[in-house]
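for the writeup, i need someone to sanity check this before i put it in the appendix. the sequnce is what the collaborator sent (i think, or maybe the updated version? ugh). structure was predicted straight from it, no edits. if anything looks off just tell me and ill rerun, i have time this weekend
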Amino acid sequence: MKLAFIGLGVMGYPMAGHLVRAGHDVTVYNRTAARADAWVSEYGGRAAVTPAAAAEGADIVFCCVGNDNDVRQVIAGENGAFQGMKPGAILVDHTTASADVARELAAAGAAHGLSFLDGPVSGGEAGAVNGKLTIMLGGDEDAFDRVKDVMAAYGRAVTLMGPVGSGQLTKMVNQICIAGVVQGLAEALNFAQRAGIDGNKAVDVISKGAAQSWQMENRSSTMLAGKFDFGFAVDWMRKDIAICMAEASRNGAALPMTGLVDQFYERIQGRGGSRWDTSSLIDLLQRP
């Protein structure tokens, strides 16, 4: 298929590459042109100078940028993707953003005869590189059926959750869970260290039981070693938590633990850890 991919960050760069490897004709756009040029050198395809130019003639346009404003700009702004897309084409937004912006852009796309799916992902950089992301989508079922097999190039689980906005709401559920799990793991590992127990050995034992989690399997050893210069940045987690808190204020959900963990992440930022991995919560306990 003829595809476009807008946004070649930590996630988008390998995701777009998987589409080429699956045999698709891919044109990319990135605000930093050098990043797009590097991608073309590695994977082939083409780079465009605007989102509209990248989207021209594409059957499906994928997007993975930073926040609500970024999404609006590259999709519906001046020279945005909507200006280049042909009637009947589909835009899939993989950005973790608000459900409100998803609904807003779906309505704008419909006015142009386009379909819009919000499809945030989970699995981190490793999931993107290995093509094993979990993708949760909101939108029209017919549009989903047309794109799901294409997204299988980088998604091991591709699920339609409901109408537009449902993908973003599901990603909020995901981030709320992660906030609690990482804090619990941080406290447990710090406890083990202070109790004189071999933390890695303890994890090896308890990961076989009910305490097991992705965070435990993938972050415990680096947490024990105090290494955080990789992974999903604290800045991005705070952005996601802010989206969760705003949605909760509208729907009446109580998020006391999530709000507390957000305060902890604010303290990490104060320590210069804005780009540290989210597992850096343990630093507040190791170095109180």
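The two ends are 54 Å apart (CA to CA). The chain has two domains: 2-162, 169-286.
thx in advance!!
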